[in-house]
User: What shape does this take?
Amino acid sequence: MIEKEGYRATIVPTEGSEFGYWYADRETLKANMSIKYAAHCAGLGSFGMNHLLITKDFGPRVRMTAILTDAPLETEENTQLPFINKTCSSCMKCIEVCPAGAISSDGKIDREKCAQYMFNVLGGLRCGLCVKVCPM
Ligand code: SF4
Ligand code: SF4
Assistant: This one.
């Protein structure tokens, strides 16, 4: 639809999928662009200690996708949400529950530990405990 209007548009490569495609870099486990960071800049939420976007209505229980385009878009004022969710400092439940020890209280996450746990221990299934335990 966007292209029919004369603008460019493409899907943003994000992450692996259950269907065998892997859009992120397998070495760094990073995608070409952080949709979570873009969503934060757009005022949709703050980051949690679990490195997920914590949204107002659904906490970290969201799936995001994005389209890059040069089409002119209407925007709203940025709500200037804090980068780190305020509840995290008195919670830390995701750090305690992570079976791979991938989440640290200093704000870092070890992507490799998380990926290895899901590939090697869960046989490629998702873990998601850091989503499930989040009170937001
Ligand atoms: S579980 Fe607690 S510490 Fe972890 S992201 Fe959610 S609110 Fe923050
Ligand atoms: S998905 Fe599981 S292993 Fe990965 S960071 Fe969350 S709790 Fe840890």
